[in-house]
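Same chain as my last thread, 597 residues:
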Amino acid sequence: METVSLLIKNAKVFNTYLKKFILADVSVKNGKFYYIDRKQDTLFQADAVLDAEGKYMIPGLVDIHMHIESSMMTPEPFGSCVAAYGVTTLVSEPHEMANVKGVRGILEMISAAQSAPIDIFYGIPSSVPSTSERLETTGGIIDCSAMKELLDKKEVICVGEIMNYRQVIRENDLEITKFLNYLRREHPGYVIEGHCPSLLELELARFLYLGIDGDHTEHTLEEVKQRIENGMFFEIQDKMLKPEILKYICENQLYEYCSFVTDDTMADVLYEKGQLNYVVQKAIEAGFPPEMAIYCATYTPSRRMHLYDRGSIAPGKIADFLLLENPKVIEPYYVYKNGLEIFSRKNGQEASESDIEGTVCNLPGPCGEQPVKYRFPADFYQSICLPSVTLKNFQIPVHTDKEEVTVRVIEVHPDRTQTTEKLVVMPVQGGVLDWRTSGCLLAMVLERHGKNGNIGYGFITGSCLNKGTVAATYFHDHHNLFVAGDCPEDMLLAVKRIQEMQGGFLTVREGRILAELALPVCGILSEKGVKDTALGLKAVRESLEELGYRHSNPIMSLGTLGLPVSPALKLTDKGLVDVKHGMIVPLIVEQPFIPCP
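reply #2:
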């Protein structure tokens, strides 16, 4: 009698090629599916037998566009968390880590992922820095030669999202353009991911002509139509689960040309709602056929990334699968990776521990809370390198004889991360800007990579906090130290505490720290599991809301106030950035513009 390692009996198996469920027994041999027995009459000597008892068996979920750093966890605890949600393959784009540590950061993320219970692949960050050294200081820079170096890593399987899309389609000598030219010559067909909101018609054609044929960003229906009609693979994240988009895909049977992705998922959302399973679940609830939703979360993303060894339950494919009690409810009862159990929910209760050491699940959400196995290099835990900061640094001298001046202010809005410029008149007292009664908060970005000690000054108003102080080193994409507040003494306290923690988020008021989340790995990641990270992040978010931050996602809003590719006015260590014109503009309107060196 032939021997197999695992035999799954009495399962309703999702047949990817027929796009329907079929009752069968499934055997696994050497970590791969061996035989899908529809007659259920083939005898095997099995090392282990799992009676599915009529449960629905689908391939492991595959998320091909996401950023592990958005969870603020390192790859090992993140992988343990999402394994319990049925995700067995990820393609992560580590441009946040690359902005702090360059190629070394990417290589360390690759190494750290080896301890995770799932497969984690990576995309080459194409926009590090997101703009240029003229507008922001980053810890690392990824140029064409660095991109070529990363091609040799087996875990690297694509070019990550190309964000400076309007520059790329014009004549230029950008590093990413050099790399795209190299790929066309030496690696034709290599997967290249895009990020091109609002591109249409000829501009979209120029983008596609360069070989950039995937997009995951938010779009109108017309933008989605033009992408699919022109052969672009469309990746659907949570905010794109719009009725008109899903209807267009379903009515035109366009399932082959799209997949579901998560992009950014913060720890609190991971803990409370899930990851890719949550996006798929929402799509089904919005009317997407369950079989097609499963297809677009397993098979189409695998094909997009040329991962032809997975994404279906068929002979020779990697034995990644989950069992569901209801195909319309993506809550795994069992999750298997390479034919081995990595998560189970037995007798209606989540297992306390899986077969993969380090994967622990506690209510209400799956999570991995055991100590991590992988340790980053020592300097990754000592990355907050600030110059000496005193109260004097929180004063803004103004060289004028006038009693008041007009100041550029960043106005925050409650429903988006894009900001606008607002002009506010502020008094001048003793040669210093007297901003305390202006209705604005002082904002500063301190260069923390130990390169130049720059401090950029600005002000924020609108749907942000209206009292107290907030500080963070999780500050897209350069991740310098951001602090904003109504009291210089509190702001100085916040800066010093962030330096003690070696990165993170915190809020302060009246000399007291209200909430904090330490992110000691490069100032952007925690080695703790999802539960601890989520609860810390939730405490900071709730504190921000108590201080008046009125936004659908205060953490994301705060973290993008320094992103110089997102309109309209942002703050970096170089100063205020006019995003549309790509230049530093003076804080005081009357002062002459001085180009940044």
